[in-house]
Amino acid sequence: MAKIVGAITTSHVPAIGGAIARNLRTDPYWKPFFDGFAPVHAWLGKVRPDVAVIFYNDHGLNFFLDKMPTFAVGAAPQYTNADEGWGIPTLPPVAGDPHFSWHLIEKLVGEEFDVTTCQEMLIDHACTIPMALLWPTGGAWPVSIVPVCINTVQHPLPSAARCFKLGEAVGRAIQSYDADKRVVVIGTGGLSHQLDGQRAGFINKKFDLEFMEKLPTDPLWATRYSIGELVEQTGTQGIELLMWLAARAALGGAAKTVHSNYHIPISNTAAGLMLMERMAA
Protein backbone atom coordinates (compact mmCIF):
# COMPACT_ATOMS: atom_id res chain seq x y z
CA MET A 1 0.00 0.00 0.00
CA ALA A 2 1.04 3.61 -0.48
CA LYS A 3 2.62 5.29 2.53
CA ILE A 4 2.66 8.96 3.53
CA VAL A 5 6.23 9.67 4.61
CA GLY A 6 5.57 13.18 5.91
CA ALA A 7 4.14 16.62 5.25
CA ILE A 8 5.94 19.80 4.24
CA THR A 9 4.42 23.28 4.32
CA THR A 10 6.14 26.27 2.79
CA SER A 11 5.56 29.77 1.49
CA HIS A 12 5.51 30.32 -2.28
CA VAL A 13 6.10 34.07 -2.77
CA PRO A 14 6.95 34.89 -6.43
CA ALA A 15 9.97 36.91 -5.27
CA ILE A 16 11.51 33.61 -4.14
CA GLY A 17 11.57 32.50 -7.78
CA GLY A 18 13.37 35.69 -8.70
CA ALA A 19 15.94 35.12 -5.96
CA ILE A 20 16.54 31.57 -7.21
CA ALA A 21 16.91 32.78 -10.80
CA ARG A 22 19.43 35.46 -9.77
CA ASN A 23 21.31 33.06 -7.46
CA LEU A 24 20.71 35.14 -4.36
CA ARG A 25 20.54 32.26 -1.89
CA THR A 26 23.51 33.57 0.10
CA ASP A 27 22.50 37.23 -0.11
CA PRO A 28 22.06 38.60 3.45
CA TYR A 29 18.40 39.38 2.78
CA TRP A 30 17.61 35.86 1.52
CA LYS A 31 20.08 33.65 3.39
CA PRO A 32 17.96 33.14 6.57
CA PHE A 33 15.11 31.94 4.38
CA PHE A 34 17.04 29.59 2.10
CA ASP A 35 19.18 28.20 4.94
CA GLY A 36 16.00 26.91 6.55
CA PHE A 37 15.60 24.30 3.82
CA ALA A 38 18.86 22.38 4.38
CA PRO A 39 17.35 19.96 6.96
CA VAL A 40 14.39 19.35 4.63
CA HIS A 41 16.74 18.53 1.74
CA ALA A 42 18.52 16.01 3.96
CA TRP A 43 15.21 14.47 5.00
CA LEU A 44 14.00 14.19 1.40
CA GLY A 45 17.27 12.51 0.46
CA LYS A 46 16.66 9.96 3.18
CA VAL A 47 12.96 9.15 2.61
CA ARG A 48 13.08 9.52 -1.21
CA PRO A 49 9.39 10.04 -1.99
CA ASP A 50 7.99 8.87 -5.32
CA VAL A 51 4.99 11.22 -5.44
CA ALA A 52 4.18 14.66 -4.05
CA VAL A 53 0.53 15.52 -3.46
CA ILE A 54 0.53 19.33 -3.47
CA PHE A 55 -2.23 21.43 -1.95
CA TYR A 56 -1.94 24.87 -3.52
CA ASN A 57 -4.00 27.84 -4.70
CA ASP A 58 -4.12 28.99 -8.30
CA HIS A 59 -3.47 32.70 -8.92
CA GLY A 60 -5.23 33.07 -12.27
CA LEU A 61 -2.95 31.00 -14.50
CA ASN A 62 -5.23 27.96 -14.73
CA PHE A 63 -8.48 29.29 -13.22
CA PHE A 64 -9.88 32.80 -13.26
CA LEU A 65 -12.78 34.62 -11.62
CA ASP A 66 -15.22 33.59 -14.35
CA LYS A 67 -14.70 29.89 -13.53
CA MET A 68 -13.33 29.16 -10.08
CA PRO A 69 -13.79 25.66 -8.65
CA THR A 70 -13.71 25.28 -4.89
CA PHE A 71 -11.56 22.16 -5.16
CA ALA A 72 -9.80 20.80 -8.25
CA VAL A 73 -7.51 17.79 -8.73
CA GLY A 74 -5.07 17.28 -11.56
CA ALA A 75 -5.17 14.05 -13.53
CA ALA A 76 -2.71 14.97 -16.29
CA PRO A 77 0.33 13.00 -17.46
CA GLN A 78 2.40 16.15 -16.99
CA TYR A 79 1.93 19.71 -15.74
CA THR A 80 3.38 22.74 -17.45
CA ASN A 81 4.22 26.17 -16.14
CA ALA A 82 3.71 29.45 -18.02
CA ASP A 83 4.70 33.11 -17.72
CA GLU A 84 2.58 34.78 -15.04
CA GLY A 85 4.06 38.23 -15.50
CA TRP A 86 6.27 38.13 -12.39
CA GLY A 87 9.50 38.11 -14.37
CA ILE A 88 10.54 34.69 -13.09
CA PRO A 89 11.66 31.94 -15.50
CA THR A 90 9.22 29.22 -16.37
CA LEU A 91 10.27 25.78 -15.18
CA PRO A 92 10.29 22.46 -17.05
CA PRO A 93 7.15 20.31 -17.05
CA VAL A 94 6.54 18.17 -13.98
CA ALA A 95 5.47 14.54 -14.43
CA GLY A 96 2.01 13.55 -13.30
CA ASP A 97 0.66 10.18 -12.20
CA PRO A 98 -2.78 9.83 -13.83
CA HIS A 99 -3.57 6.43 -12.35
CA PHE A 100 -2.84 7.65 -8.84
CA SER A 101 -4.73 10.89 -9.52
CA TRP A 102 -7.84 9.04 -10.65
CA HIS A 103 -7.70 6.89 -7.56
CA LEU A 104 -7.70 10.03 -5.39
CA ILE A 105 -10.48 11.62 -7.44
CA GLU A 106 -12.71 8.55 -7.21
CA LYS A 107 -12.18 8.28 -3.47
CA LEU A 108 -12.89 12.00 -2.95
CA VAL A 109 -16.09 11.87 -4.97
CA GLY A 110 -17.03 8.75 -3.02
CA GLU A 111 -16.69 10.85 0.15
CA GLU A 112 -18.98 13.53 -1.37
CA PHE A 113 -16.33 16.05 -2.36
CA ASP A 114 -17.43 17.53 -5.68
CA VAL A 115 -14.01 18.11 -7.21
CA THR A 116 -13.23 19.50 -10.64
CA THR A 117 -11.13 17.01 -12.58
CA CYS A 118 -8.36 18.49 -14.73
CA GLN A 119 -6.89 16.24 -17.42
CA GLU A 120 -4.90 19.24 -18.64
CA MET A 121 -3.59 21.75 -16.12
CA LEU A 122 -1.21 24.68 -15.91
CA ILE A 123 0.54 25.06 -12.57
CA ASP A 124 1.71 28.44 -11.31
CA HIS A 125 4.32 29.63 -8.82
CA ALA A 126 2.36 28.10 -5.93
CA CYS A 127 3.50 24.71 -7.26
CA THR A 128 6.73 25.43 -9.07
CA ILE A 129 8.46 27.52 -6.41
CA PRO A 130 8.00 24.87 -3.67
CA MET A 131 9.32 22.26 -6.11
CA ALA A 132 12.40 24.40 -6.77
CA LEU A 133 12.89 24.99 -3.05
CA LEU A 134 12.59 21.35 -2.08
CA TRP A 135 14.59 19.89 -5.00
CA PRO A 136 17.04 22.69 -5.91
CA THR A 137 19.61 20.74 -7.91
CA GLY A 138 17.92 21.23 -11.29
CA GLY A 139 17.29 18.63 -13.97
CA ALA A 140 14.30 16.33 -14.02
CA TRP A 141 12.18 16.42 -10.88
CA PRO A 142 12.65 13.23 -8.80
CA VAL A 143 8.91 12.97 -8.02
CA SER A 144 5.66 12.95 -9.93
CA ILE A 145 2.95 15.23 -8.59
CA VAL A 146 -0.78 15.30 -7.96
CA PRO A 147 -1.87 18.95 -7.66
CA VAL A 148 -4.91 19.65 -5.47
CA CYS A 149 -6.11 23.22 -5.90
CA ILE A 150 -8.10 25.02 -3.18
CA ASN A 151 -9.88 28.29 -3.97
CA THR A 152 -8.57 31.16 -1.86
CA VAL A 153 -9.40 33.89 -4.39
CA GLN A 154 -13.11 34.08 -5.21
CA HIS A 155 -15.53 34.24 -2.30
CA PRO A 156 -17.21 32.26 -0.89
CA LEU A 157 -14.12 30.33 0.18
CA PRO A 158 -14.27 26.85 1.70
CA SER A 159 -14.09 26.95 5.47
CA ALA A 160 -11.00 25.88 7.36
CA ALA A 161 -12.98 22.91 8.70
CA ARG A 162 -13.98 21.85 5.18
CA CYS A 163 -10.38 22.08 3.95
CA PHE A 164 -9.26 20.00 6.91
CA LYS A 165 -11.84 17.34 6.01
CA LEU A 166 -10.64 17.42 2.41
CA GLY A 167 -7.11 16.77 3.61
CA GLU A 168 -8.27 13.89 5.78
CA ALA A 169 -10.07 12.35 2.78
CA VAL A 170 -6.96 12.75 0.62
CA GLY A 171 -4.90 11.05 3.32
CA ARG A 172 -7.30 8.10 3.43
CA ALA A 173 -7.26 7.87 -0.37
CA ILE A 174 -3.46 7.85 -0.49
CA GLN A 175 -3.20 5.10 2.09
CA SER A 176 -5.79 2.96 0.29
CA TYR A 177 -3.83 2.99 -2.97
CA ASP A 178 -2.68 -0.54 -3.76
CA ALA A 179 0.86 0.21 -4.85
CA ASP A 180 4.19 0.61 -3.11
CA LYS A 181 4.53 4.39 -3.31
CA ARG A 182 6.14 6.77 -0.86
CA VAL A 183 4.10 9.98 -0.81
CA VAL A 184 5.04 13.36 0.60
CA VAL A 185 2.17 15.79 1.16
CA ILE A 186 2.93 19.46 0.54
CA GLY A 187 0.89 22.52 1.50
CA THR A 188 1.98 25.85 0.04
CA GLY A 189 1.22 29.51 0.73
CA GLY A 190 1.25 32.11 3.46
CA LEU A 191 1.83 32.78 6.12
CA SER A 192 0.33 36.14 7.11
CA HIS A 193 0.38 38.75 4.36
CA GLN A 194 -1.83 41.27 2.60
CA LEU A 195 -0.87 42.68 -0.77
CA ASP A 196 -3.39 45.48 -1.17
CA GLY A 197 -5.89 47.74 0.58
CA GLN A 198 -5.50 49.68 3.81
CA ARG A 199 -3.63 46.81 5.48
CA ALA A 200 -1.12 46.24 2.66
CA GLY A 201 2.06 44.87 4.21
CA PHE A 202 0.20 43.41 7.21
CA ILE A 203 2.08 40.63 9.05
CA ASN A 204 0.90 38.96 12.27
CA LYS A 205 3.92 37.19 13.74
CA LYS A 206 2.12 36.24 16.95
CA PHE A 207 -0.67 34.42 15.13
CA ASP A 208 1.72 32.79 12.63
CA LEU A 209 3.88 31.30 15.38
CA GLU A 210 0.86 30.08 17.34
CA PHE A 211 -0.54 28.50 14.18
CA MET A 212 2.77 26.73 13.51
CA GLU A 213 2.98 25.55 17.12
CA LYS A 214 -0.55 24.16 17.09
CA LEU A 215 -0.48 22.58 13.61
CA PRO A 216 1.22 19.26 14.54
CA THR A 217 -0.50 18.66 17.88
CA ASP A 218 -3.80 20.52 17.73
CA PRO A 219 -4.57 21.20 14.05
CA LEU A 220 -8.29 21.63 14.69
CA TRP A 221 -7.42 24.82 16.61
CA ALA A 222 -7.42 26.84 13.38
CA THR A 223 -10.68 25.31 12.15
CA ARG A 224 -12.52 27.12 14.95
CA TYR A 225 -11.99 30.39 13.11
CA SER A 226 -14.31 31.52 10.32
CA ILE A 227 -12.83 32.64 7.00
CA GLY A 228 -13.49 36.25 7.97
CA GLU A 229 -11.72 35.79 11.29
CA LEU A 230 -8.73 34.14 9.62
CA VAL A 231 -8.47 37.01 7.12
CA GLU A 232 -8.56 39.44 10.04
CA GLN A 233 -5.74 37.56 11.76
CA THR A 234 -3.54 36.85 8.73
CA GLY A 235 -4.44 39.32 5.96
CA THR A 236 -6.31 38.78 2.72
CA GLN A 237 -3.69 36.49 1.20
CA GLY A 238 -2.77 34.93 4.54
CA ILE A 239 -5.85 32.75 4.10
CA GLU A 240 -3.46 30.52 2.12
CA LEU A 241 -2.90 28.75 5.44
CA LEU A 242 -5.86 26.61 4.31
CA MET A 243 -3.36 24.59 2.26
CA TRP A 244 -1.23 24.04 5.36
CA LEU A 245 -4.30 22.72 7.18
CA ALA A 246 -5.18 20.34 4.35
CA ALA A 247 -1.64 18.98 4.19
CA ARG A 248 -1.54 18.44 7.95
CA ALA A 249 -4.92 16.70 7.83
CA ALA A 250 -3.70 14.36 5.08
CA LEU A 251 -0.78 13.34 7.30
CA GLY A 252 -3.31 12.17 9.89
CA GLY A 253 -2.90 10.97 13.43
CA ALA A 254 -0.63 12.49 16.03
CA ALA A 255 2.27 14.35 14.45
CA LYS A 256 5.53 15.99 15.43
CA THR A 257 7.57 18.83 14.01
CA VAL A 258 10.84 17.55 12.58
CA HIS A 259 11.98 21.00 11.44
CA SER A 260 10.57 24.49 11.13
CA ASN A 261 11.73 27.94 10.07
CA TYR A 262 10.03 31.33 10.22
CA HIS A 263 11.46 34.47 8.67
CA ILE A 264 10.04 37.95 8.09
CA PRO A 265 9.77 39.59 5.78
CA ILE A 266 10.31 37.99 2.39
CA SER A 267 8.95 40.63 0.05
CA ASN A 268 5.99 41.69 2.23
CA THR A 269 5.16 38.19 3.46
CA ALA A 270 5.79 36.12 6.56
CA ALA A 271 7.65 33.11 5.21
CA GLY A 272 7.13 29.84 7.03
CA LEU A 273 8.44 26.30 6.61
CA MET A 274 7.48 23.14 8.46
CA LEU A 275 8.39 19.47 8.12
CA MET A 276 6.11 17.08 10.02
CA GLU A 277 5.99 13.34 10.49
CA ARG A 278 3.42 11.08 12.11
CA MET A 279 4.36 9.91 15.57
CA ALA A 280 4.73 6.19 16.10
CA ALA A 281 1.60 4.57 17.52
Give a structural overview.
With 281 residues, the protein is an alpha/beta fold. It has one domain: Protocatechuate 4,5-dioxygenase, Chain B, CATH 3.40.830.10. 33% of the residues lie in helices and 22% in strands. It has nine helices and ten strands. It is globular, with a radius of gyration of 17 Å.
Write a concise keyword list for the protein shown above.
globular, Protocatechuate 4,5-dioxygenase, Chain B, 9 helices, eight-stranded mixed beta sheet, alpha/beta, 10 strands, 281 residues, two-stranded antiparallel ribbon, 33% helix
Distance between the termini: 18 Å
Give the overall shape, derived from the CA principal axes: globular
Q: In CATH terms, what is the fold-level topology?
A: Protocatechuate 4,5-dioxygenase, Chain B
One letter per element, helices H and strands E, the order comes to EHHHEEEEHEHEHEHHHEE
Count of spatially separate domains? 1
Helical residue percent? 25-40%
